[in-house]
Design brief:
Blueprint (H helix, E strand, L loop, with lengths): L10 H13 L3 H4 L7 E5 L2 E5 L2 H17 L2 E11 L6 E12 L3 E3 L4 E7 L5 E8 L7 H4 L1
Parallel strand pairs: 1-7
Antiparallel strand pairs: 1-2, 3-4, 4-5, 4-6, 6-7
Length: 141
């Protein structure tokens, strides 16, 4: 059985899997993609997620708001991937939010910090989000 962060998943596949797990409300499973403690910066405010439960709580309200707005899929659009140095690299991306009637791409780029595990898998070490997206903004406009 392959875990979500197994050596078969590159950065693109891992982020795609994260989006799938988020929409499916499989938030505990999504935390297997992360290393702890994990710094998360949102709009300039840094929070260190000490464990999976803190990360689930962070995701919970965002998930519930996204699903209430009718989001059906969350797909990463990778902007750039840094060359690895000492088994670490960054990925810049924008999330594309899919709804039944339209798609919305985030206006700001997020940065995910990855580390390659000794046995070959990837893990997310840190996340930097410029701002939390206003999910469903096109529907309310």
């Amino acid at each position: 059985m392959d875990l979500p962060g197994s050596r078969r998943l590159g950065a693109s596949a891992l982020l795609g899997r994260l989006g799938e797990l988020f929409i499916a409300d499989r938030l505990h499973e999504a935390t297997q993609l992360w290393s702890f403690p994990c710094p998360v910066e949102v709009a300039g405010e840094l929070t260190v997620m000490k464990d999976a439960e803190e990360l689930v709580a962070f995701f919970r309200s965002r998930h519930d708001r996204a699903r209430a707005a009718g989001m059906t899929a969350l797909v990463p659009r990778i902007i750039a991937i840094e060359m690895p140095r000492k088994h670490r690299f960054r990925v810049w991306l924008r999330w594309v939010h899919h709804f039944d009637t339209h798609d919305e791409e985030e206006e700001h780029t997020s940065v995910f910090y990855f580390v390659r595990k000794p046995w070959g898998g990837l893990s997310i070490e840190m996340m930097d989000i410029v701002r939390i997206p206003d999910v469903g903004r096109a529907q309310s406009a």
